Backbone:
């Protein structure tokens, strides 16, 4: 079995926390239950993430492998996500509650705040030895219908959560992607103005 944890550590231009340098999004998972206390800690980290005006719009559907909810989420996945994600221990849907101002206009901060909650969740999970792979390759309308969601609760992301597995368990194309080195834009490309 070839695990890739150490080879995926980012080579950074400035020192960053180890948990951030080592965090990555695998597609190979070991299909077994995970430690529930680690999952609870990841959700707690999401709960304590910042949000605009403390509005806390992030919501989650947490589905463990073998449950009806897990199957509903897996069925909503698109493309090659259907191949690898169902081997994860947990499929989690990140949703946001639409926020409106006093005039009834949508406030755009809810999606941003869900993103912060997902970032906190993924970093805490990695710290505790779990891995998270977020994806938008799913059909939101299928999630809305499968879980009979209120009209103002919108699914935005699905995350596979579990223990990293071996790329040998993936098909050839996915295994190649799994083994590829991590890359990012340079800081010069990322920062538009730095005075």
Residues:
């Amino acid at each position: 079995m070839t695990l890739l944890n150490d080879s995926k550590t980012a080579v950074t231009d400035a020192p960053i926390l180890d948990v951030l340098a080592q965090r990555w999004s695998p597609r190979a998972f070991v299909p077994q239950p995970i430690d529930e206390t680690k999952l609870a800690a990841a959700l707690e980290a999401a709960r304590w993430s910042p949000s605009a005006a403390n509005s806390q719009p992030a919501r989650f559907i947490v589905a463990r492998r073998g449950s009806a909810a897990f199957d509903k989420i897996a069925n909503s996945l698109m493309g090659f996500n259907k191949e690898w994600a169902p081997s994860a221990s947990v499929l989690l849907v990140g949703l946001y509650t639409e926020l409106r101002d006093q005039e009834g206009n949508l406030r755009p901060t809810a999606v941003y705040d869900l993103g912060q909650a997902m970032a906190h969740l993924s970093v805490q999970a990695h710290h505790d030895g779990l891995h998270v792979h977020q994806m938008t390759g799913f059909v939101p309308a299928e999630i809305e219908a499968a879980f009979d969601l209120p009209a103002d609760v919108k699914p935005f992301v699905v995350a596979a959560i579990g223990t990293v597995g071996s790329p040998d368990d993936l098909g050839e194309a996915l295994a190649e992607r799994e083994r590829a080195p991590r890359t990012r834009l340079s800081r010069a490309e990322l920062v538009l103005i730095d005075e």
